[in-house]
Amino acid sequence: MNMFDEISKEKIELPKINTITKQLTKYELNTYQKFGFAIWIISFVLGIILGNIFSTCDVSGNFYNVNCINREFNMSVMFLVWFSGFTMGISFFGLGHIIYLLTDISDKLEK
Amino acid sequence: MNLEDKKKEVAWYDNANFVTNLIIVVLSLILIASQSLGGSSDLTAWELFKNVINVNILYVLVLVYFILLKFKVGKKYFNYLNVFIIILYFIIFITSFLSIFKAFDLIPFLKLLIYLFIFIQAFHTFFRDTRFWKEFKLNNSPFNEINEESHFYIITIISVIYLALNLIMTDEFSGVVLTLFVTVFYILFSRYIMLYDKYLDEHDKDNDNLGNFDKFRDAIGENINKEKIQDTIKNVGDSIDKAGDKIVDASKKTVKKVKNIDKEELKTNLKKSKDDFIKRMNTGLEEDDSKSSNSKKKGDK
Fold this sequence. Notes:
A: two-stranded antiparallel sheet; 4 helices; B: mainly alpha
């Protein structure tokens, strides 16, 4: 059997855009979660900018050559910035979620 | 020649299974060769790791994609993996575009073109069989006019030029080996996307068919017994005629019967049946009354 025949039998459809937007807009974010989200966006853009500024040697045709002929985008710097931004953002996001849960519990206890 | 024999004679470059296996082999060779060739140079472990991230991250991620396709998980989440590949190549395209400003040379420019065309080809092929094709109305895209084979040939030509330039510029064995493998990978990956596009074309319904079945006639082949088909068609026609005659006869008989019905006799019969029905209703009600009165008397006692 053709590989694509097997895949077409088993594959699942992508979710609708409306479903995705509803899922994302269902929750109201508090200040810490918004801050975490902002850190993600900033680190994404900063990673691309820093990867371009701190460029590395181009390795096409001259892999591991000591002499740097051309310079190209530095992926390692970009992924480093993305990874650090992601961890920082997720810690703030998690903190915000804990605060949301605690406020929810206190509201229910007051009732 | 039988149809089964025709099916078996698919060329290796049209066999999706073979192409994906070849891609996995080539990517593995790229990663192994780059590490082994790098190990022989005077680079530290950190520099080697940085080179892996800078140069080989694309190949690692694409290798993971093709390995996952061999398993059920990959086949189930095929559309999600394709979205990941499209995003990956978009990022690679953006980074190679920014590299142009650092070193405006022919080789980075060719790399940019290769990534651009692969991104366009992947975007317009992988989303074809998904919901996003209709939601974003991607059939109106101008790049949709380009044939899938044209995409493949464009990428092949640019890759060959890229290979030639790199072979001219390189002065090391590692450069020659790795550039060859990378060029082969670009061509095979484009071929894989083209094969998926062809597969979708074959499985799309032909809604614009105005009655021209030449394609199907050719596909069926020459092994049809025309006389047998004509005989069966004739037999089916005869049986339909017979059934039609019987229906016509039966309908004629019923029409005759309806015409010959005596109207006055019909009226008297209807009146009789009505009177009988009323009598039965009245006798039934009287019986119910008598039963209820008897039960009351028993209760009083």
